[in-house]
Design brief:
Low-confidence stretches: none
Mean pLDDT: 90
Strand content: 5-15%
Radius of gyration: 17 Å
Distance between the termini: 34 Å
Order of helices and strands: HHEE
Strand order of the largest sheet: 1-2
Structural class: alpha+beta
Number of strands: 2
Length: about 80
Amino acid sequence: MAAKPQRPGRLTLELPPKARGKLEKISEETDQSLSEVIRRALALYDLIGSRLKAGGKLVLSNADGECEIVLTEFVD
């Protein structure tokens, strides 16, 4: 039996002014809707969480190639 396609759901989100400002800034800088920025942030959160839960770590590097371990475990 084929699964029913899921319909998009509407969400009302209350954000503090600082968080709303960050969201709007990212939206403007990337030319994406507020909804798309949130969707991409959730996808990134899910990816990082699954990798950390599997024993990975989040490592960031700067333009000089210098690396910094940012996270080694996912906190629920």
